[in-house]
Design goal:
ABC1 atypical kinase-like domain-containing protein, 4 domains, 19 helices, 11 strands, Mito_struct-func_regulator, four-stranded mixed sheet, alpha+beta, 508 residues, Kinase-like_dom_sf, 8% strand, ADCK1_dom, signal, five-stranded antiparallel sheet
């Protein structure tokens, strides 16, 4: 009887989803001005939307059927839920890859929300979404060029490499040379992204709303709202170009002490449109490539310090924050002036890429957020509560909010003996945090519902920066410890050899 009821729910969901998706597809096709595009949408959009329907229904059915009758809080339920989370994460991953575009962006968002969504989803998305993005063919790239600039790339540039050097969820990057010989990076939007965006947003929204309908504690509707607001801006590369210039202008006006240490590629406005962005080519190391950074004569710890300082300036002083600082968007090169540290190491310059996603923080938000971090560093429980409440966490969830920010349980957050800016990241601590997140999953969902979206983006930004800094500092420390162990081994062997030699001499 229960199984039959579940199958009926699944069938109703599929019918309702199909109706919504068909309406979304019709709206998208009706607003298209390109007959060829409309024809393609008629054949591709329904297939994509059908995948959404099947995936949403399959995930809901799996959760309801697998967890049916298992007592809340039992060990058996936890084991089964872990398996369902994993299966569902793989289903969502497969959907993201097949549909591409916005779905890849959704997967990337999920992969960066460590301890805010089930860890099975985070790990599955993080392992794949940044490295397996779709690639447009050269013919498709040419089509975008003809629509935007009226000519193919070979007519506009002296040289244009048809093979992209990087591909992301919304666009890919090609290397080219302008008619005056300048080397540039050309960002080309994946074809028809704008046309399919409306249907894709409807599909993503249905999946999230459906999961929330069946499982009220799974409330990630804020993520859909964020994508709905931010995606049109990210799809307009002229907005990205203006953001990059405003970012540098803020550093020059408001943070002149580090303005020379932060850079963004110059925009070639005459070769840029809403779907094409031509920028200065940057020859630099990726921020998490410690060996490449060291080969440049730069200390990784200096880079970690610069990354933290630059984003602190954006958050607390500028109020205009780059909200997608994962490793692929941060590059490092030696400071062009050639300035060196006291130890003779070259000073780093941080290069910021992908300026499509920015958030503005008003003065009160910046002040309260800065006050909260000060309280966290000083382990001041009263001030932590006061500022968490001001930011929207509420008097009942302020401790959870502090734990998410520092990635520590409350008893460690208020322990004055701990350094709250340091996260060990070892297996035992990671396991404890995962258990902590699982135990308070419903409370975390409620917290995410309450917090302003700008604060949610700050949480995501913090997670990205934490991952970058950990890769810089931890790898550097691990190599230092390894060298120390090797040195210790050599000294021990030398002492043993010396002892044997002395023993032998004494014996003789």
């Amino acid at each position: 009887m229960a199984t039959r009821s579940l199958w009926r729910s699944r069938a109703k969901l599929a019918i309702a989803a199909s109706a919504i998706f068909t309406g979304s597809a019709a709206a998208t096709i009706a607003t298209s001005e390109d007959p060829a595009t409309t024809l393609k949408l008629c054949t591709t959009v329904p297939v994509r939307l059908a995948r959404d329907t099947i995936t949403a229904a399959s995930i809901v059915f799996d959760y309801q059927y697998s967890l049916w009758g298992l007592p809340e809080g039992s060990v058996e339920r936890s084991k089964v839920k872990h398996k369902v989370h994993l299966r569902s994460a793989h289903k969502l991953q497969e959907l993201c890859f097949k549909n591409g575009g916005i779905y890849i962006k959704l997967g990337q968002h999920i992969g960066q929300l460590e301890y805010l969504v089930p860890q099975e989803y985070v790990q599955t998305m993080r392992e794949s979404m940044l490295n397996k993005c779709p690639v447009s063919s050269y013919d498709q790239v040419c089509e975008v060029f003809k629509q935007e600039l009226g000519e193919t790339p070979d007519k506009i540039f002296n040289e244009f490499d048809p093979v992209p050097i990087a591909s992301a969820s919304l666009a890919q990057v090609h290397v080219a040379r302008t008619t005056n010989g300048q080397k540039v990076a050309v960002k080309v939007q994946h074809i028809h992204m704008t046309d399919t965006a409306a249907a894709d947003r409807a599909g993503v929204e249905l999946i999230v709303n459906t999961l929330h309908w069946f499982f009220p504690s799974f409330d990630y509707r804020w993520l859909v709202a964020e994508i709905r607001e931010s995606l049109p801006k990210e799809l307009d590369f002229l907005v990205e170009a203006r953001n990059s210039e405003k970012c540098l202008e803020n550093f020059q006006k408001l943070s002149p002490h580090i303005a020379d240490y932060v850079y963004a590629p110059k925009v070639h406005w005459n070769l840029s449109t809403s779907k094409l962005l031509t920028m200065e080519f940057m020859d630099a190391a990726q921020v998490n490539d410690v060996k490449a950074i060291e080969r440049l004569g730069i200390q990784p710890t200096e880079v970690a310090k610069l990354v933290s300082q630059a984003f602190a300036e954006m958050m607390f002083k500028h109020g205009f924050v780059h909200c997608d600082p994962h490793a692929a968007n941060l590059l490092v090169r030696p400071l062009p002036s050639g300035k060196r540290s006291l130890l003779g190491k070259r000073k780093p310059q941080l290069i910021l890429l992908d300026h499509g996603l920015y958030k503005e923080l008003d003065f009160n938000t910046r002040y309260n957020y800065a006050s909260l971090w000060k309280a966290l560093i000083l382990a001041d429980a009263k001030s932590i509560k006061e500022n968490s409440v001001k930011l929207g966490a509420g008097e009942d969830l302020y401790a959870l909010f502090a734990g998410i920010l520092t990635m520590k349980p409350w008893n460690r957050v208020v322990d004055p003996a701990l350094d709250h800016l340091v996260i060990q990241g070892n297996d035992s601590e990671r396991s404890e945090l995962q258990m902590y997140a699982s135990q308070y999953f419903s409370q975390i969902s409620e917290l995410l519902r309450r917090l302003p979206r700008v604060i949610l983006l700050m949480l995501k930004t913090n997670d990205c920066l934490r991952a970058v800094n950990n890769s810089l500092v931890q790898v550097w420390l691990e190599e230092l410890l390894l060298e120390a162990r090797l040195l210790g081994m050599h000294i021990a062997l030398w002492l043993l050899q010396l002892r044997r030699a002395l023993t032998g001499l004494t014996y003789k």
